[in-house]
Amino acid sequence: MEGNALKDYGIFLLHEENKEIVLKVFINRGLLYMELGDYANACEDLKEAVLLSPGDSQIFQAIGTCHYRLNEFEDAVRSFNQVLRLEPVSVEAYIGRGNSYMKKGHEADLKQAQKDFLKAIHLNPMCMKARICLGYNLQTLGKLQSAWNQLTVVIAIDSKCDAAYEGRASISLQMGEIFSALQDINAALKLTTTAPLLTNRGVINQLMGYLSCAMKDYQQAISVDPTYALAYFSAANIYFHNHQFSQAYCYYSEVLKLEPRNESAIMNRAAKEDFEKAVCLCPFSAAVYFNRANFYNALKQYELAEKDISTALSIQPNDAMMYRLRADIRAKLGFSREAVEDYKKAISIQEQTDDM
């Protein structure tokens, strides 16, 4: 139906000469493109519209949103600047420009974003969107308590704002308050059930050592959204940790179907050809060789495992875990003297680490 509307708009523009009607067509078609997620075509139509009506701040607001969605953050900032020249008290423009600065990511941009979010809050102290954005901004700048406070204000304004609970859970987790993070993520899940929320709760459960609960969350996330790659990846990591390599292989494969260039999934998927791909992608990554050594060790291919763990140690020579693995492998190969030397080296490194 949307396709027919777009076709009709195109035909209409070929024949219509009235400026006001043409303006409305460009705006409506641009907004329809936006609704369909076609931000490039939406931007083109809205730019045509702004030529016909250069004083319309709403058109510039929509153009800024399109640039933001297209990851064209400099252009987005310029569009929101134009909105604010025309309408200096536009809360949405300050939020849009602030988010664009956030995406640029430099420290100066983050501070400018903070000013924009604060201005939006000054104009409308009850604007939850501005406070949530400010919370994430403060979190990015490392001001965790201030970020937590902002999201707590949002929850006081609206106790059913799932985004605020989710954001506060993330901050609590970063502050080391794992149980508080779990409480907030549970509160968010009572309001809405999404794959990202379930996956986040899985991560929290995993950090608390509740691996079976974490796996249930990842599986539920997959059932809610079978295209959510992070849930497959997180579940695969638990399978890998438990040495359930066939299950891990299947789940890493699902990640790669959804994200073919996910280097972490390629590196972790327990299959020889994938480790070879990982070596090509990350030839100086000790983790690649360490994971492949674990894989060969599980298959009792100890010579190949010993070769890979030795390569890993040549790249990362002061890793106690790697020395312990090589000691185990060498003991299985009957290299008793070398195994004892590796065990001693692992203990020495661990003692040095504990003393630091």
TrEMBL record:
Question: Where does the secretion signal sit in this chain?
Answer: none
| SUPFAM superfamilies reported for this sequence | HCP-like, TPR-like
User: Keyword annotations for this protein?
Assistant: Repeat, TPR repeat
Pfam families for this protein? TPR_1, TPR_16, TPR_17, TPR_2
Q: Which domain of life is it from?
A: Eukaryota
Q: Where are the TPR repeats?
A: 23-56, 57-90, 195-228, 229-262, 286-319
Name the PROSITE patterns on file. TPR, TPR_REGION
SMART domains tied to this protein:
TPR
Which protein is depicted? Uncharacterized protein
Organism this protein belongs to: Meleagris gallopavo (Wild turkey)
